[in-house]
Structures are given as C-alpha cells and as structure tokens.
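Read as amino acids, tokens; as here:

___
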Amino acid sequence: MILSIEELSIFSRERTIVDSVSLAVREGEFMALVGQSGSGKSLLSQAIGQLLPPNLRTSGYVLFEGSNLLEWKPKEMRALRGRDISYIFQDYQGAFTPFRSIGGHFDEYQKVHGEKSASVRKKRAAEALESVGLHPELLRRYPFQLSGGQLQRASIATSLMLSPRLLIADEATTALDSMSAHRVLELLARKQAETGCAILFITHDWRHVRRYANRLSIMKEGRIVESGGKHRILDHPQHEYTRQLIEAAPVLSNELKSGLKEVGAE
C-alpha cells in the first residue's frame, strides 16, 4: 500500500470539514475519489502534501510508504513533493510564471530537487515534453506563447518529470471540454502504464471514473460513505448517496441500465 489515510480529520475554528476519513491507494492503481463540490475531497488531497491553508488543523494519519506525513517538517515535505508525490491541479496556468520560459520552469523544478547537472536537466526537460507530445523547442517559449492545451500538457510533463510514486490529480479536467479531458486522461493512463505510478484522481465526473478507475471512494459532507471496486459500486451501489450520484449522471445512468456498455467517444 503506497498511501494509507487513517482517521484523518480537518478542522477550522468553527467546524469539522473532513471527519475521520480512511482511504488507501495501492501501488500502480488508478483510484478515484468522487464527490460533489464542497464534499471535502480537495482538502483531503491537500492534506496529503501539507498544502492546507494555515487556518486549518488536522488529526489522524497520512501514511506514505509507512511514514506519517503529518509529522514531517516543511523542508522534508518540499523535498518529497514533486519527487515522490506530485500534483496536477485544475489551474494549470497558475503553475507557470509569465516572465520565465517553459525551459526555465523545468530547470528550476529540477534544481529544487537536487539535480546539479545542467546537461541532465536540459535532456530530462526535453524528454518530458516529448513524452506528452510536445516539441522540445517549446522550452524556449514563454507561457503566453503556448495554447491552453499545450500549457496543460506542459504542466503534466512537469508533474511526471521526476517519475513520482504517487500522482494526485485534483479536478485536473474540470475546466476542459470533453475531448480535451479525454486526451489528458488518456495521457495519464499511458504514463501510468509506462512508469507504474499510482494515481489518486479527484473528480465529480462519473464518465471519467467509469473509463479509467480501478477502485473508487465516494465522499459526502466530509466523510467517505462507500468504497470498493469500480464495477461493484457501479453495478450494486450500497449507499443511497452513491445511487443518487449515479442517477444524476444521465450518460452513465443510461449505460448502466443498458448493461454497463463501455462509454463511447466523448
């Protein structure tokens, strides 16, 4: 088990936002965390990497390969993030500083994680762009000179560049149209097959869950209400909230009623 969250709670001064959540991600699997906006799933993902706002407190355990990350010092976490645990966020444009070239971003990212050889950094950056279907010449360009789709792929390339053990994709496809979202997820699935990394995919879109996930957990109002294998939950949801979510997704609901056929091209 690469990640094991045990009895994790997140508090503000006024209330408990995430309440005693337990969740596990196995090595090499595509795990989906599903829930409506405000369910606490993004805060849960931020707690893994100690990225919560300073006004929030935590209790419980976030075990990464057996070590409780909630006890790690900030310097230790900065070294871990990007190297062993990497994030892809919805706001991929916010990952780039307008006045630094794409190559400058890739170079600095590697320097932070201890790569001292300039030639290695340059070669790895070029390979990272090529792995997501972009030409290395884009390293000389600035973020405003790339299209939205190119920036999205460059952001993914950065996240995958150091071959993390765990990739956390937090609503990474929410702002994209159906075709762009499909391409991003196909890219993540391909990179996962190549590297063997685990993916924690946080979403409210059941179409993507149906196509890509191995297992899933359903989150409501700060609690996990159901977890299990994808087909078990889609075939036989046990919790009323899970059934409501499935029925509220017309494309998925119709396919389940017709025998769980594969989702067609989006």
Summary: Residues 101 and 142 are 4 Å apart (CA to CA).
